[in-house]
Amino acid sequence: MEFKGDGKDKFFIVTRGKARKGFSRGCIGRVEAVMHKGELMGLLYGGGSSGNPKSGDIVKREDTYPLTRHQAQLLLFVSPSSKRLELLCNPQLFSAICVLSQDDLVVVKHKKGHQPGLVRNLMLIGKKENQGDLLMLGFEVEFVDSDQTVSPKKPAPLPLFSAADIIQVVPAHSVGIGPRWKDSYSEGLNRKAVSRINSMPNMGSRERQVRGINHLDQNVTQTPTQSPSHHPFEVGSIVEVTSNTGITVYGVIRWMGVLSENKNDWAGIELDYEVNNCTDGTYGGQQYFTCKEGRALFVPLTKCSPDGRFLCPPSEKETLKATDIPPVIPLEETDENVPPIPESEALSLLVGKMKGIQGHYNSCYLDATLFSLFSSSMTLDSVCHKPAGTEKSISRSLKKDIVNRLRRQGFVPAESVMNFRKQLGCDTFVTEEKDPEEFITILLQRVLCMKSLLKLRSNNNTSQDAYTFQIILDKEQVTQTPTVQQLLDISLLSCGLKFEEIPSCLMVHMPRFGKKYKMFPHIIPSTEFDITDLLYNSPRECFLCGRLAEYECPQCLQDRKLQPGRIKQYCTTCKTQVHTHPSRQSHCPRALAVPAEVPADAPVPRHKMQLFAVLCIHTSHYVSFVKYGPGPRSWLFFDSMADRCGDDQSGYNIPEIRACPEVGDFLSQSEEELARADPSQAGEPVRRLLSDSYMYLYQSASMALYR
């Protein structure tokens, strides 16, 4: 039912950039000219009752997505403009809305909740006064209601909905034809500035007998239909149920068994949306499972069929692939450097389902790592800027297909990730589970030939290069619930290592090995990591008096009278006084390399790095927590495989991003409060962060980019 224009006009939606007098995020525009700097001169369309272009302005091409006329008309009717971007970032739903046909079954948001209905007409909204006007498009939807009856009187006008009001599109099924509103009912409606597109095609849909959805539990036949015995069901199976009146609903089996008054097997199904007269999992006064009120449907198991939305028809020759998710709008070929997502735009662009990087076939280690490194930080953006050489192709693929797509669209399809995995030079990266540190090392060292991120110097003055740092220590050296700062201090000091320079990115691998073993049940994240006392040949202050330190004592590290767990360095005077104590006379302080030009009483600057992401693992599955801005509560949780649509052969994973301000609230406590906190009593996101942490990612303040 696409409304076809003249095919010459080009439209776009603004997806990035700060609000200003002209274009702002969510605005719809028409391209008037392409400027030489890659900018667009465009006309801005306003909402309201007309689609007249209100003003003209210049916008960067990288801050826009191109739209077809039909997409622009649908989105123009959506208000507020922020909802346009939310809809645009749901590829499956928006694509289905764009090709809706007459009599397609949809579920819309209504004042009473979620209501199923049939699409009856595509509506042009507005009055075209000038050649350049763009009329909005909406949908007339006839609600499915068992109480509706055919009346000889002219019915009230059908309600009008925007594309954003549609939350689900039910695919067409061939079912019996039943009564429906006559076409004459839609004639003669006199709505101001509203007209129908009478040529709305029926793209293969069938008229449905949909009366009686409110009484599905009563109208389901008790006799076996074509029971798919070759599809054994279990709790968790995704199924569909069709009533005697022809309405099909979808859901997940939450309970299976025999009801008290029946001998046959029944299924308790949690539906995708609320239906009148359905329950919260209760049947006959007994609670069989728990769900939202109005979503529990109990039917004979023989009435269940595999969800047809995820099954390929027998006539299809090709099998649906998990990566066959239609992108709403393909990104343009561009080599421009897209900056990280600003804090002010992160929530609207990223939070929700089908956001982030889509997982596929053991890719969670890679998805979580890439999202952590590139969504809100630019500390490793240099890997995307390789000018030439054998690594040019993969760096360009990383930049264009993953980093730029993530930062501009908020979603990277599994196909883009799979293409990137195939370029890593090893078949196991395409099929097998890996660890983040292995992927990082292979990518940076062997594939991109990037210089090491870490330069370490040992006590015997030998240098070591690395890309990540593995914590190595004895469990007895720290408290039961250590901080990342304590683990790093003790590990480096115990191994006799120092950083030669402040790294731009420090990725710290926690002391846990394999899928199950971890040295500490909980680790407290250090939002700031003070690297000052871990730098080689850098000024440090005396632990006691604050003057320039000249000695360091590893044995004093765990002294209970001297703040155990803190690195101890002393000036000459304090070193002598501290080690006159009988318990410390056996210590062996080491002389520090002190720059000769630094005065003994000069203040020593502190060098700190900021935590910007945490990779976590639980039962072989990697997820990540990412800090998306300087605000203390600006935390996101990302899971590339949070849910799944369909089965292993024909389905796909659904990535999800959730805002986690409670993580920031917990980490904003003082060191003393964190030391006394009981992690087991914290909320689920905080508990998961503390118990499942695998790798902490830090960046130096000079390299951080939060906009």
TrEMBL record:
It is an enzyme of class 3 (hydrolase). Residues 355-701 form the USP domain. Pfam families: CAP_GLY (PF01302), UCH (PF00443). Residues 257-300 form the CAP-Gly domain. Its EC number is 3.4.19.12. Keywords: Cell membrane, Cell projection, Cytoplasm, Hydrolase, Immunity, Innate immunity, Membrane, Metal-binding, Microtubule, Phosphoprotein, Protease, Thiol protease, Ubl conjugation, Ubl conjugation pathway, Wnt signaling pathway, Zinc. GO terms for molecular function: cysteine-type deubiquitinase activity; metal ion binding. It is found in: Cell membrane; Cytoplasm, Cytoskeleton, Cilium basal body; Cytoplasm, Cytoskeleton, Microtubule organizing center, Centrosome; Cytoplasm, Cytoskeleton, Spindle. GO terms for cellular component: centrosome; microtubule; perinuclear region of cytoplasm; plasma membrane; spindle. One of its GO terms (biological process) is Wnt signaling pathway. It is a peripheral membrane protein. It catalyses: Thiol-dependent hydrolysis of ester, thioester, amide, peptide and isopeptide bonds formed by the C-terminal Gly of ubiquitin (a 76-residue protein attached to proteins as an intracellular targeting signal). Belongs to the peptidase C19 family. Interacts (via CAP-Gly domain) with IKBKG/NEMO (via proline-rich C-terminal region). Interacts with TRAF2 and TRIP. Interacts with PLK1, DVL1, DVL3, MAVS, TBK1, IKKE and RIGI. Interacts (via CAP-Gly domain) with microtubules. Interacts with HDAC6 and BCL3. Interacts with MAP3K7. Identified in a complex with TRAF6 and SQSTM1. Interacts with OPTN and SQSTM1. Interacts with CEP350. Interacts with RNF31; the interaction is indirect and is mediated via SPATA2. This is Ubiquitin carboxyl-terminal hydrolase CYLD. It comes from Salmo salar (Atlantic salmon). The gene is LOC106582893.
